[in-house]
Automatic annotation (TrEMBL):
Gene3D superfamilies: Divalent-metal-dependent TIM barrel enzymes. Its main location: cytoplasm. Mg(2+) 2 binds at residues 268, 271, 307, 309. Its cofactor is Mg(2+). It is an enzyme of class 5 (isomerase). GO terms for biological process: D-xylose metabolic process. NCBIfam families: PRK05474.1, xylose_isom_A. PANTHER family: PTHR48408, XYLOSE ISOMERASE (PTHR48408:SF1). It catalyses: alpha-D-xylose = alpha-D-xylulofuranose. This is Xylose isomerase.
């Protein structure tokens, strides 16, 4: 079989002194961090959609990407060749996982039956390549937003036929994900929301979305798929308001429709930014409720207020992300998926390697920094000490739901007022983080 990246060798680890742009400076998959290999802490995944099918088009011009293996035809033959190229990339990069939508890997046919047959054919190639390389499917998902049939949404569409088609499409993709040994399945509500409330029955749409996801849970049990279900929050774009807007809205939705025990969240940095949150907030909020499942790693441009999906290179960002991941005990079925794309001007195949090497190195550095911060202990001790007053007898009674307002009154009346007990020391703590960076 001809090589698709003949000028790129398997990417080695050469250490921080290396000047080789096609080498890792910080990501050494077998290096132990806290007694665990770096590759197991990070569980890196490559996003099929951005890396292998994105033409690098934008609203002002057509795509610029040079992809010699892809002739642009919507055929199974072309899709299979693309899959072979994808796995050569994954193998040379040393990424242990990948993720894909159904429409990333195979073309739609004239009917659903033909579309499913196309997916089965390419899934056979993917399975062969997984067995050849050892690369694993982190999670699968269905594209319920690109086709014009989903212009009003999929499970939230006012057109019942769109709802029905979406259900059939998810059914098939869940079967394929199970066949490929996927560790999970993600739901991203790309158009599950509204552009104006003037034409929207919001309550009915939410009920339909809840019913759709409950049907997915039922089918998951029916086929014996034991992978983790994820929801990926995003507040807007392409709709003005999406129902899965951030961690807290997803938690409320899952509780309302009795789904909390069946789903975790797949959180993305750029989506957190669009929701007006730092990624650390979203991670912490999900972990606090036991639903942090996986991460889409990217970043946005602070000068642009939209989803730019750039590769993460900010070490402060990756260090604070990994602090949250380590604090929750690490990934189980999830990992760090690079839902990121090269810039439109970075059009050559080798740029795909440069981008992923940079992101993987950035998270490797973030992991090592986060581990050292936790080993050092000053940050966690400060937080513990800041809440020390709650360790009093009455504080414990409040936390265990054994205290009343009358108890609080009896306690505070003799004191007369509140005395500030400790400064927040934000600046000192920011300096502490920078010590390790």
């Amino acid at each position: 079989m001809p090589e698709f990246f003949p000028d790129v060798p398997k990417i080695p680890f050469e250490g921080p002194d290396s000047k080789n742009p096609l080498a890792f400076k910080h990501y050494d998959p077998d290096e132990l961090v806290g007694g665990k290999p770096m590759k197991d802490h990070l569980r890196f995944s490559v996003a099929y959609w951005h890396t292998f099918t994105n033409p690098l088009a934008d609203p002002f011009g057509p795509g610029t990407a040079l992809r010699p293996w892809d002739d642009g035809t919507p055929t199974v033959e072309n899709a299979s060749r693309r899959a072979r190229a994808a796995f050569e990339f994954l193998e040379k990069l040393g990424a242990p996982f990948y993720c894909f939508h159904d429409r990333d890997v195979s073309p739609e046919g004239k009917t659903l039956k033909e579309t499913n047959a196309n997916l089965d054919a390419v899934a056979g190639v993917l399975k062969e390549e997984q067995q050849r390389t050892g690369v694993t499917l982190l999670w699968g998902t269905a594209n319920l937003f690109s086709n014009p049939r989903y212009m009003h949404g999929a499970s939230t569409s006012p057109n019942f036929d769109a709802f029905a088609f979406a259900g059939a499409q998810v059914k098939k993709m869940m079967e394929v994900t199970k066949e490929l040994g996927g560790g999970g399945y993600t739901f991203w509500g790309g158009r599950e929301g509204y552009s104006t409330l003037l034409n929207t029955d919001l309550k009915r749409e939410l009920d339909h979305l809840g019913r759709f996801l409950n049907m997915a849970v039922d089918y998951k049990k029916a086929i014996g798929f034991d992978g983790q279900f994820y929801i990926e929050p995003k507040p807007m774009e392409p709709t003005k308001h999406q129902y899965d807007s951030d961690t807290e809205s997803c938690l409320n939705f899952l509780r309302t429709y009795d789904l909390l025990g069946h789903f975790k969240l797949n959180l993305e940095t750029n989506h957190a930014t669009l929701a007006g949150h730092e990624m650390q907030h979203e991670l912490r909020m999900a972990a606090a409720s036991g639903v942090l499942g996986s991460m889409d790693a990217n970043t946005g441009d602070p000068m642009l207020g939209w989803d730019t999906d750039q590769f993460p290179t900010n070490i402060y960002l990756t260090a604070t992300c990994m602090l949250e991941v380590l604090e929750m005990g690490g990934w189980t079925t999830g990992g760090i998926n690079f839902d990121a794309k090269v810039r439109r001007e970075s059009f050559e195949p080798v740029d795909l390697f440069h981008a992923h090497i940079g992101g993987m190195d950035a998270f490797a550095r973030g992991l090592k920094i986060a581990h050292k911060i936790r080993e050092d202990g000053r940050l966690s001790k400060f937080v513990t000490d800041r809440y020390a007053s709650w360790d009093s007898e009455l504080g414990r009674k409040v936390e265990s739901a054994r205290a009343t307002f009358a108890d609080l009154e009896s306690y505070i009346l003799p004191k007369g007022d509140v005395t500030p007990n400790v400064s927040g020391r934000q600046e000192m703590l920011e300096n502490l983080i920078n010590e390790f960076i």
